[in-house]
C-alpha cells in the first residue's frame, strides 16, 4: 500500500530532474526496498527511469534500512544522517539510488507558480523554506536534548570518556589479578620446597 502511495510523488520529483531519470534508466527492472520500521516500500525502476510499486513477492536487488529517527533527520535535510543508513545488495544500484535521493529535489516553487503565479509562488516557497529550516533546527535541538537527558539525567547512554575510563580500570584490575595470581603461585612453590 505504501509503495503505491510513494510512487506518484517520487515520479513527480524525478520528472523534474532529467539527470536522475537517465541515471536510473540503466537499472530498469531492478527493485529497491526502503525499510523504516515498521514500514517497507518496494519500488521497481521502469524503462523511463521512473518507479512503480514492485510486484508482490519480488525480491529486492538493493535494500536501504534506516531508523525512524534517521529518516526524520534526512527529511529535515541533515546530511550526516545518511551515514546511519544500512545498505545491502547490488552496490551499483544502491549507489545510483543514493545519488538520486541525496540530490533530486522537488521544485515546489515551480509547481506553485503554475497555480498562483510567479510572485505569490516565490513568496510562499520562501516562507516554506524558512519553516523547513526552523523545523530542522528544532529537530536537531530536540535530538541533542534527548541525548543529553539520556546521558546526564537518566543514564541510558554512557559517555565515551566514561566507557574508556571503565575499560582502562578493568584492564588495570585484570593486570593486578594476573600479578597476584603469579605471586600466589610463586609462594606456593616456595612453601612446597620448604616442606
Overview of this protein structure:
The protein is built from seven helices and five strands, in the order ααββββαβαααα. It has three domains: 2-103, Nonspecific Lipid-transfer Protein, Chain A (2-Layer Sandwich), CATH 3.30.1050.10; 108-157; 160-195. It has a five-stranded mixed beta sheet, covered by helices on one side. With 195 residues, it is an alpha+beta fold. Helix 5 (108-116) runs antiparallel to helix 6. The chain is elongated.
Compute the average pLDDT.
81
Strand content: 5-15%
**What is the count of structural domains?**
3
CATH architecture of the largest domain: 2-Layer Sandwich
| Succession of helices and strands | HHEEEEHEHHHH
Structural class: alpha+beta
Strand order of the largest sheet: 3-2-1-4-5
CATH class of the largest domain: Alpha Beta
Instruction: Pick out the low-confidence regions.
Output: none
Largest sheet: 5 strands, mixed
Distance between the termini: 84 Å
CATH superfamily of the largest domain: SCP2 sterol-binding domain
Shape: elongated
Rg result: 28 Å
Count of DSSP strands:
5
The helix content, as a percent range, equals: 55-70%
Count of helical regions: 7
What is the CATH T-level topology of the largest domain? Nonspecific Lipid-transfer Protein, Chain A
Amino acid at each position: 500500500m505504501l509503495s503505491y502511495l510513494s510512487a506518484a510523488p517520487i515520479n513527480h520529483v524525478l520528472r523534474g530532474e532529467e539527470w536522475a531519470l537517465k541515471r536510473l534508466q540503466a537499472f530498469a527492472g531492478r527493485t529497491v526496498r526502503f525499510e523504516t520500521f515498521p514500514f517497507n516500500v518496494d519500488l521497481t525502476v521502469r524503462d523511463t527511469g521512473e518507479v512503480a510499486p514492485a510486484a508482490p513477492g519480488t525480491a529486492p536487488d538493493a535494500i536501504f534500512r534506516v531508523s525512524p529517527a534517521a529518516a526524520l533527520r534526512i527529511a529535515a535535510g541533515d546530511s550526516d544522517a545518511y551515514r546511519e543508513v544500512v545498505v545491502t545488495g547490488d552496490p551499483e544500484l544502491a549507489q545510483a539510488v543514493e545519488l538520486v535521493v541525496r540530490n533530486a529535489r522537488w521544485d515546489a516553487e515551480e509547481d506553485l507558480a503554475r497555480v498562483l503565479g510567479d510572485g505569490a509562488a516565490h513568496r510562499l516557497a520562501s516562507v516554506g523554506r524558512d519553516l523547513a529550516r526552523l523545523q530542522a533546527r528544532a529537530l536537531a535541538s530536540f535530538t541533542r536534548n534527548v541525548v543529553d537527558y539520556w546521558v546526564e539525567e537518566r543514564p541510558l547512554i554512557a559517555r565515551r570518556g566514561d566507557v574508556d575510563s571503565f575499560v582502562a580500570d578493568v584492564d588495570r584490575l585484570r593486570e593486578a589479578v594476573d600479578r597476584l595470581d603469579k605471586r600466589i603461585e610463586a609462594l606456593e612453590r616456595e612453601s612446597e620446597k620448604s616442606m
